[in-house]
What we know:
mainly alpha
Amino acid sequence: MTTLAINDPKFSITPTGIQFRQNLSFDEWDNLGQKLAPIGRSIGFIIGDWINYGDKRYGEKYEEALANTGLAYQTLMNLAHVARKVEIYLRKENLDWSQHATVAKLKTEEEKRYWLDMADKHGLSVRRLRKSINIGRLATEEEVQGDSADRGYVSYFALLNRIRRWWVRETQKAPVDEWDEDRRQGLKKDFKLILDIYQAL
């Protein structure tokens, strides 16, 4: 398969990226992102589960298939390790692969489930989740920022991912059309800044 099964005359998706042939409206661009995001969140587990199945079913022969993927061997082993350590029934659809990888080192299913639930409920970044696991309780943002080992540049991707996770949680609780008008108008006002940034580009 060389293309993702999203068909649109305005763009094409290939193994090396997206080629835009026509301009997309904001809604079209946003809709595409909503289709792509779940794939991005799940691909690490899909490949990891595939590797683990091959290892169990075909033994040494599976390494030939791994070589055919073109991905680095260590990357494949990391994906397989996390998929093995965080079984499918523990995984959270709203969390990224990297958050699951953070709990993979934990010893028991109960610990993994607890911290994945915490990450989902509180929208924890990988850094905050890691810090929380290390200290054995929910770390505050101040504690994460105050730790020199955890300091680093916060990219806009991290911020957008936190907003995306918040959005998924809120719309799962209740669809937008069930929200009262005050809440909808308040959020429109708050999120206008993001629209302003987008339109300024």
